[in-house]
Design goal:
Strand order of the largest sheet: 1-2
Strand content: 5-15%
Order of helices and strands: EEH
Largest sheet: 2 strands, antiparallel
Number of helices: 1
Oligomer: single chain
Shape: elongated
């Protein structure tokens, strides 16, 4: 990195422009979308095991989403 010049010519206007060093974005592994994809893949190979029926009157309400991207996800 020491041998790289501090200024380079802009590819658009050909004027001198300073170099800007930034962190590479190699992964979006912390994003909610990535976590959702991981959970979906994991559930296909490691389904949740149920050892007993839920208590009467304590059924978990099914949550529905209006997001059209969620239609592509596998159904349970």
């Amino acid at each position: 990195m020491d041998s790289v010049p501090d200024m380079v010519s802009c590819p658009t206007c050909r004027r001198p422009a300073p170099r800007k060093i930034s962190a590479p974005r190699l992964s979006v592994s912390g994003s909610a979308a990535f976590k959702l994809i991981d959970a979906t893949k994991r559930s296909a190979h490691e389904p949740e095991v149920v050892s007993s029926l839920p208590a009467a009157g304590r059924r978990k309400k099914q949550q529905y989403t209006e997001n059209p991207l969620h239609r592509k996800l596998p159904r349970q």
